[in-house]
Write a structure and sequence with these properties.
- The complex is a heterotetramer of chains A (168), B (262), C (365) and D (100).
- Helix content of chain A is 41%, strand content 24%.
- In chain A, helix 2 crosses helix 4.
- Chain C has three domains: 46 residues; 148 residues, no CATH class; 157 residues, no CATH class.
- In chain C, 25% of the residues lie in helices and 27% in strands.
- Chain C contains seven helices and 19 strands.
- Chain C is elongated and about 120 Å long.
- About 3% of the residues of chain C have low confidence.
- In chain D, 59% of the residues lie in helices and 20% in strands.
- Chain D has a three-stranded antiparallel sheet.
- The chains are: A alpha+beta (168), B alpha+beta (262), C alpha+beta (365), D alpha+beta (100).
């Protein structure tokens, strides 16, 4: 009788354990799905940042002045743009985020066609496999002083600046 | 001592063998019942979960395709877990599903033959076929479509729209074609790599407001009712063809998404 | 008899108990191990369900939008309209004057420029709002949760602003935990600073009589595009007094619209800030028996919200408010029209400082 | 005990299963909504208006480039007393009339 008691206790423990683990395994394996990582959060943050940086750069700092962004495009000053953009995009109160890198293109309308030229980048080689987002800003250019060939028309116009950005 | 002898006396009235047999019988019946009913339910649930998982995956892929198309992101990749079936890339030239757009005034084909032979737009698709082959989930022409038990539904719509805010009715149709260099098919975990190619943009300003007919052809009639129901949101129709009246301007954009790897 | 009982007790208990507990321990431990494994698994099962980080990021995003793009809001239906000029002006309710209104009726604390005009740029925040927002003595920790974080869940937060012109960064909230997932958003904003004017107090025409009147001409000040306009009723205004040739004192500062009266005894009011760091209220200087000595670089600062209809009920939208300063030296003073154009003598012109960029970051967990 | 736990896990699993059907996340919705686009277009319209240049070619620029790069329709009309900005990308429709 003493022996029986002991055996029963052990077997109960083993049985309950096996039962629970098997059930849990079955249930977990049938219902848990592999969800694609929430890359949308990163996209959302990066897109917001890119849009903010471009919008800030496109705000004149003094009444009546052109915006810094307009001046960079007017003068085709790609290094000025790059420094300005990276300063805004990479400033953070606490370190720990990857550095922002970017590549930008200007699209313009020439009669019925759309043309484009490479404008500025952060000097990084793009493998084409980064996790990128693309933001854009319409920039009013009153007068192209130094249009890159074949180039946009010489008139006041609105060009579309597209910036593709990604983190390290 | 009296207590103990009383206890022994009580136990002696019970047969251990019969008790064991009863217990064993109950256990066996229980196991049998669980195996008979519980397990198939579980398996069925698993199959459902797999399909649901794939539906979710397809919607995630659709939003990646949207990023490629509308946000001009050059490259996207997405990790997929494919279980309970096969995921494959059907590139555009090999299928029998295609779209046509016709200006009914004068019967002009509006899809340019230069880019799309025969004025037919073959979208191709990203397709999931379930194990038993009875359920298809496809990302076709920017829409997520599902075929099941002889019918089909559209889980997520493409971005087609009519803008009639001004005096003229503008119809905007956005087509997405799937292209790839190889025939990919996968089960298990795969990383779908996609890149976008320069889209073709066509825009017609019609001399007078005309009816525009959109046709969806599907010899297997896989997604027939899905597209018919979607077309119904533009104008009432009973088959996979819709005629949208008095359109003044038609804008069509043909995007191409290239699958680089799976 | 008792021996018999004792024998029975010893016999039975020593007999069973030893083996029982060992078996029980083995069985229980196997059960517990299995239980722990299963409960760990089930915790993992719930990860997808709770998805807190998504929530944190969404909340951080919302907070970022409120701070960077929203001017904020107060409930104007319960008498606050009487205090402040309009529904955006959460920053113009001064707690020392209206403590009850201050907290109860504020709905959101946005930092952006009020949307009086359709073409106000979306990215501009006002500097006095950020000062007020990041002032640790101003609001309780939980108050921020109610006004910019929202949600029933008691979120923790850390919000910081880093000026890109080299200024000091400011923050509110708790330190960001290193070992926990947090929601994060970063916004880039342009900061609009208070307008200032440097005035030559010495009057060459000799008609000054020791009085100087500065006119805040609302009409003249509304001629620019809204992003660069000066809002004397909403923003701080700074008057820098220079060119005192001899030591002198200021005996009174009054505000006139059109009749002159003493400035407010409590905030919002007008302040006299001396270059040595002393700060005085402009309210009734002389009755205190100590006319205030002033020198080059003394600032007259008008609090945001003071030059408004609340304190000057006769004020119309295109009217003006004069600030009249009286000096003990009769050679000082003059009429100064506070506007963009150089209408006044001595080349004094109104100055709106350049916008500066700042990075606004929010963590939520 | 084992049975209770199994049953509760199964119930939780069903809940998880249901939650999986919610495919769209908050951040996805944020990404879908073209807030920055609309703000950008508005800002651009005010910018060229204040520059006092011929608005027609610039409006054509904005409309063409938006259709070309973003597949969205933009229609801006600009008269001395009224400014209309219309944006439609098939999902989001924005129409603003500003009386000057």
């Amino acid at each position: 009788m003493v022996n029986e008691n002991g055996v029963l206790y052990t077997i109960e423990g083993v049985a309950a354990g096996v039962l629970m683990i098997t059930t849990a395994y079955l249930v977990v394996s049938t219902t848990v799905m592999f969800t694609p990582g929430d890359s949308h959060i990163i996209d959302m943050q990066l897109e917001q940042l890119g849009n903010d940086v471009l919008a800030s750069m496109d705000t004149p700092i003094r009444y009546g002045d052109p915006s810094p962004l307009e001046l960079y495009i007017t003068d085709n000053d790609s290094s000025g743009f790059s420094n300005h953009f990276l300063l805004y995009a990479n400033t953070a109160a606490q370190p720990g985020f990857g550095r922002i890198k970017f590549n930008s293109t200007v699209y313009y309308r020439k009669d019925a066609d759309v043309g484009s030229y490479h404008f500025s980048d952060s000097g990084d080689i793009m493998t084409g496999r980064e996790h990128m987002v693309n933001v854009n800003r319409r920039v009013f250019v009153k007068d192209y002083t130094n249009p890159p060939p074949p180039g946009p028309d010489d008139r006041p116009q609105s060009v579309l600046l597209e910036v593709t950005l990604w983190r390290d | 001592m009296t207590k103990k002898s009383k206890k022994i006396h009580k136990e002696s009235g019970v047969s251990e063998t019969i008790g064991y047999i009863i217990l064993f019988g109950i256990m066996t019946t229980g196991i049998a019942l669980v195996t008979l009913y519980g397990y198939p339910v579980l398996l069925n649930e698993q199959a459902n979960a797999n399909v649901k998982n794939m539906e979710r995956n397809m919607i995630a892929l659709q939003s990646d395709v949207k990023s490629l198309n509308f946000k001009n992101v050059p490259y996207r990749e997405n990790t997929l877990q494919i279980s309970g079936g096969v995921f494959k890339v059907e590139k555009f030239s090999t299928d029998t599903k295609y779209f046509k757009v016709i200006n009914e005034t004068g019967n002009y084909q509006l899809i340019p033959a230069a880019s799309f032979p025969g004025n037919e737009f073959h979208p191709g698709q990203l397709l999931f076929i379930s194990e038993k082959g009875d359920i298809l989930v496809g990302l076709q022409n920017g829409a997520v479509v599902k075929r099941e038990q002889g019918g089909s539904t559209m889980l997520s719509e493409p971005r087609w729209f009519i803008d009639s805010s001004g005096s003229d009715k503008i119809l905007v149709l956005i087509f997405t074609q799937i292209d790839s260099d190889a025939d990919y098919a996968k089960s298990g975990i795969g990383i779908l790599q996609m890149s976008s190619e320069q889209p073709v943009e066509v825009s017609y300003l019609l001399s007078s407001a005309s009816p525009i007919r959109i046709e969806y052809h599907d010899t297997e009639s896989d997604y027939f009712s899905a597209w018919r129901n979607y077309f119904n949101t533009f104008s009432a129709t009973t088959d996979s063809t819709v005629t949208i009246p008095s359109v003044k301007k038609v804008i069509m954009k043909f995007y191409k998404v290239k699958i680089l790897g799976l | 008899m008792w021996i018999e009982k004792f024998h029975y007790w010893v016999f039975h208990h020593t007999d069973d108990s030893g083996q029982l507990s060992i078996d029980f321990v083995v069985g229980l431990s196997i059960f517990m191990i299995a239980f722990i494994i299963v409960s760990t698994m089930s915790a993992g099962l719930l990860v997808g369900l709770q998805s807190k980080t998504i929530d944190y990021d969404a909340v951080a995003y919302r907070t970022g939008v409120i701070l960077a793009e929203d001017p904020g809001e107060i409930d104007e239906t319960v008498g606050v309209a009487y205090i402040a000029p309009d529904r955006y002006a959460w920053d113009l309710i001064y707690p020392d004057y209206y403590p009850a209104y201050h907290e109860a009726n504020m709905m959101r604390m946005g930092l952006a420029m009020p949307r009086y005009y359709y073409d106000i740029p979306s990215q501009i925040v006002m500097s006095h709002k950020t000062e007020q927002f990041f002032d640790p003595s101003k609001y309780e920790r939980d108050f921020y949760k109610d006004k910019i974080i929202f949600g029933d869940y008691p979120y923790n937060y850390y919000i910081t602003i880093t000026p890109l012109d080299g200024g000091q960064s400011k923050s509110v909230g708790d330190p960001v935990p290193q070992k926990q997932q947090t929601g994060y958003i970063k916004r880039v904003v342009m900061v609009k600073h208070p307008a200032n004017v440097t005035l030559n107090v010495f009057d060459t025409t000799g008609l000054a009589n020791g009085e100087m009147t500065v006119s805040f001409n609302f009409y003249n000040l509304s001629s620019r595009t809204p992003g660069f306009m000066v809002y004397p009723s909403l923003e701080r205004s700074i008057i820098n007094l220079t060119n005192f040739s001899t030591p002198t004192t200021i005996t009174s500062v009054k505000a006139c619209s059109p009749t002159c009266e003493d400035t407010q005894p409590t905030t919002p009011t007008i302040w006299i800030k001396k270059p040595n760091g002393e700060v005085w209220r402009a309210y009734q200087i002389s009755p205190l028996g100590m006319a205030l000595s002033v020198e080059n670089g003394t600032l007259i600062e008008v609090d945001p919200g003071y030059l408004s209809k609340r304190y000057f009920p006769n004020l119309g939208p295109v009217d003006k408010i004069d600030v009249k300063m009286v000096f003990s030296d009769p050679t000082l003073g003059g009429e100064k029209d506070f506007s963009y154009v150089q209408e006044v003598s001595f080349n004094e012109s109104f100055h709106q400082p350049n916008l500066t960029a700042a990075v606004l970051e929010a963590w939520v967990w | 005990m084992g049975l209770i736990i199994s049953v509760s896990i199964f119930l939780l699993a069903i809940i998880v299963n249901q939650s999986m059907l919610v495919g769209q996340t908050t951040s996805e919705s944020v990404l879908d909504f073209p807030k920055a686009e609309i703000q950008d277009i508005r800002n651009e319209v005010f910018r060229y208006r204040s520059a006092e240049v011929d608005p027609d070619p610039i409006q054509a620029d904005i409309e063409t480039l938006t259709l070309y790069r973003k597949s969205a329709l933009v229609d801006i009309s600009n008269t001395s007393e009224r400014l209309t900005i219309h944006y439609n990308n098939g999902v989001t429709y924005y129409h603003e009339v500003i009386q000057i």
